[in-house]
DNA sequence: GTGAAAGCGCTAACAA
DNA sequence: TTGTTAGCGCTTTCAC
């Protein structure tokens, strides 16, 4: 079977507790003993049993990440980021894909909570109340990633600024009538982005044509939205996210409308695909890996210093930036066409 | 704190052991008691502590999946599949993204092994010897997914047949000179697929132009390969996987070569993107979710019936099928162009 | 059918 | 600095 702490103890001629101390970071052991124990542990290939340790310390050494869809590269990137940071901290991570199903999401939280030290939750769709009621199920810390909700530690990106940058860019290119294809109404991120767009519209910088809301799947019903955009007389379109943007471009191509010559397209997220597509997508870059790392760090900070009663956990807002690529062009190029 | 088995015991007026039995599937308890215990457990919101249970039973209730890159939708799909099946079995899954780094992969196996009941390993790059030496680190069962290696339980797809179907399809369309852009030489899947292509070439059905090997990233150096294909006089190209195929198409577009009119392209894997791209990709569909489920099931079977000494664990080969979409066309259309 | 007791592998008091 | 003891929450003998 497995090598236990007692095997190491016997092999190095000390007691199990000494082994425990020798292997722990701040254990009070003589350097000689520590070395001897280390050597024995290495030789035997000793791996502490996390479960047994956790029973005592109350720490599992595990983190949970919950995302709506791993196939969306945005979330795949987030999982990679969480994982990479966790690995650096000696933590292993459970990944739960909830298939955009709120029931599964609640289940996942309930199942994961007892088995982890904390959870990084990407939950665009759960309502604020549902989120708030999570405290009834568990007292494990939950950090919201790319969503802001009172009472939770949060890491978000400043999408209002991001949308503003995107529209300002289009304005600078001469576009005055711009369509916005929104994301699902139930999504927090979609509402946030829409708010950013509306703020710009209210400022009168450009005219915004709102074009419904669309699910961010590759197989989502973007076709109709693309046709509406085409009919609207807009010379440019801003999409809820890159996936929607690709869907639009695909439909534009079918309809014989060239991007960017006849239609400028801006996405949001900057998923890995965006730089490689033809044309490469101009998009609002959201810090995915960085956000993931920040969420893990925030989780660890909360773990290290339990919040005082009623104290609001920290909320961190990251910066976005516009990446100008090949899917946007000056309006006059279109007129020449 | 947490609700323990003793809280439930007290609440239902029985001993902890009775609670344990009442909640276990095959526990010998009177129906009345079981009901009473169940009710109390529900009322208190009792969740058995997996760690404590595992300490005794030797089962963690956890599974590990190790993949080279979560951003590759092929592997994202696999993780989703493993997850979905595991959820149905009451298991939670650790996901480890090894960033295509063999060192990280070995680390991941070593780290994960003690914390899980078994591992689903997608490891294209580890050598057969390295794989074989895994037994020194752990006796936890490891099932190889999309790779075959003696001594391991394996779930693979029949890519030799898949490649044959693809080339036969192109042949039927009138193509006689076909380029093959291979994957990384260190990859088992790449070698397997190449073998399939070579088998067809040897049969004399079509002429195959081998065009080096290319990394399956979206940002990989496909450009050069595309140019070689163009220069080779081939009228069609078969790519190692869909991602490479997209890279090729992207370059063809830049070079002004129309797909499928002037160049037919076939991918492999059938990632989610493939059906949505413009043009939608003709590709060899590999059963991703199905393979993932089969791997989990195989793992569970091995767990349930430990293999006899020296006995070869089961190996399962799944079928592929060609999905004909819009990236392939008959050769004469090209001549008309 | 049920309870008492032992112990999984480990860490944290407490002594020495 | 080190060893001894107790016990984390649970399951599993073993009695009854």
Automatic annotation (TrEMBL), chains A, B:
<dbReference type="InterPro" id="IPR028082">
    <property type="entry name" value="Peripla_BP_I"/>
</dbReference>
<feature type="domain" description="HTH lacI-type">
    <location>
        <begin position="3"/>
        <end position="57"/>
    </location>
</feature>
<keyword id="KW-0805">Transcription regulation</keyword>
<dbReference type="InterPro" id="IPR046335">
    <property type="entry name" value="LacI/GalR-like_sensor"/>
</dbReference>
<keyword id="KW-0804">Transcription</keyword>
<protein>
    <submittedName>
        <fullName>LacI family DNA-binding transcriptional regulator</fullName>
    </submittedName>
</protein>
<dbReference type="InterPro" id="IPR000843">
    <property type="entry name" value="HTH_LacI"/>
</dbReference>
<dbReference type="Pfam" id="PF00356">
    <property type="entry name" value="LacI"/>
</dbReference>
<dbReference type="Pfam" id="PF13377">
    <property type="entry name" value="Peripla_BP_3"/>
</dbReference>
<dbReference type="InterPro" id="IPR010982">
    <property type="entry name" value="Lambda_DNA-bd_dom_sf"/>
</dbReference>
<dbReference type="GO" id="GO:0003677">
    <property type="term" value="F:DNA binding"/>
</dbReference>
<keyword id="KW-0238">DNA-binding</keyword>
């Amino acid at each position: 079977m497995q090598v236990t702490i007692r095997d190491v103890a016997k092999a190095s001629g000390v007691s199990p507790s000494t082994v425990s101390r020798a292997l722990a970071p701040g254990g009070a052991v003589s350097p000689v003993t520590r070395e001897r124990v280390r050597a024995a542990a290495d030789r035997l290939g000793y791996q502490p049993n996390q479960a047994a340790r956790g029973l005592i310390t109350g720490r599992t050494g595990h983190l949970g990440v919950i995302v709506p869809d791993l196939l969306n590269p945005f979330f795949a990137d987030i999982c990679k980021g969480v994982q990479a940071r966790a690995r650096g901290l000696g933590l292993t991570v459970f990944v739960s894909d909830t298939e955009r199903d709120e029931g599964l999401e609640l289940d996942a939280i309930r199942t994961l909570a007892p088995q982890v030290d904390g959870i990084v939750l990407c939950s665009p769709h759960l309502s604020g109340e549902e989120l708030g009621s999570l405290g009834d199920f568990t007292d494990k810390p939950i950090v919201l990633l790319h969503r802001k909700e009172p009472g939770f530690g949060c890491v978000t990106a400043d999408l209002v600024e991001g949308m503003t940058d995107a529209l300002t860019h289009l304005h600078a290119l001469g576009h005055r009538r711009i369509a916005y294809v929104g994301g699902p109404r139930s999504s927090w991120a979609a509402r946030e982005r829409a708010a950013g767009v509306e703020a710009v519209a209210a400022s009168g910088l450009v005219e915004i044509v709102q074009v419904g809301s669309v699910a961010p799947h590759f197989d989502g019903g973007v076709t109709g939205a693309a046709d509406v955009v085409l009919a609207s007389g807009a010379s440019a379109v801003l999409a809820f996210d890159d996936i929607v943007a690709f869907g639009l471009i695909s439909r534009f191509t079918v309809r014989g409308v060239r991007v960017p010559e006849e239609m400028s397209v801006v996405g949001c997220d900057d998923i890995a695909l965006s730089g490689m597509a033809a044309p490469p997508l101009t998009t609002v870059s959201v810090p995915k890996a960085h956000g993931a790392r920040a969420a893990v760090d925030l989780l660890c900070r909360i773990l290290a210093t339990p919040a005082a009663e009623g104290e609001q956990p920290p909320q961190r807002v990251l910066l976005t930036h516009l990446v100008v690529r090949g899917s946007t062009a000056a309006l006059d190029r279109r007129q020449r066409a």
